[in-house]
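Translate sequence into C-alpha cells.
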Amino acid sequence: MLEELNLSQCQKLHEIEDLKGLKSLKTLDLSYCTTLERLPDLLNSEMLEELNLSQCQKLHEIEGLKGLKSLKTLDLSYCTTLERVRVVTLPDLSNSEMLEELNLSQCRKLHEIEGLKGLKSLKTLNLSYCIALEKLPDLSNSEMLKELNLFRCLKLHQFAGLKSLEMLDLPCCTALERSLDLSNSKMLKKLKIAQCPKLHEIEGLESLKSLKTLDLSYCTALERLPDLSNSEMLEELNLF
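Result follows.
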C-alpha cells in the first residue's frame, strides 16, 4: 500500500524499470535525478496526485501520463532538454482533469504547448523562462486559473486576458508589441508588466477594480497611462 516514494537527489539513477504494481501511490518525487533519461511506466498509478520531475535534466520525452486522472501537481521545472526530435513536446495531459498546478519553468527548449484544453481544475501555471515559447496554449477551459507566470518568455508576441486570473506576471516579455487587452481579466489583483519595451498601450485597466499591485516599470514605449480611477484597492504602483 505504498503511497509516497521519494527518490530525490538519486543523481546516478538513469532508469527506473517497473512501478506498475504501485496502484496506491499518491506522491512520487524524482527531483534532481539528473541522469534519469526516461520515466517508469505509471499506467496503473491512477491514485497519483503529485509528480515532481524538477531538475531531471536528461529527460527528453515524457510519456505514460495519460492515465493519471488524479494528478493535481506536476513539476517539470528545469527539464531543460525536454524534447523529441526537433519538436519539443509535453506528455498527454488530456485526462488529468484534477490537475491544479503545472510548473514548466526553465523548460528553455519548449516552443509550443498543446493538450491543456482538458485542464478544467488548473489554478497555477508557471511558464517563466520558457524563452523559446512563441504562443500560449489554449486555456479557454481553464476557468479556475488564478496564477499565470510568463516571466521572461522572450518570444511570446501576444496575450489575451483570462477571466479568472488574479495574478499575472509578464515582465521581460520583450516581443510583446502594440496593445495588451486585459478587459476580460476583471479579477486581477496583481499585475506585473515591467520591461516590455515594445508595448504601446494597455487596454482594460480601468475595469480592474480589485487590482492591488501594478508594475509598469521600464515599459519605455508606453504612450499614455491607463485610467486607474476605479482601482480603489490599489496599494502599490511602480512606473519607474
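Note: The chain has a mean pLDDT of 88.
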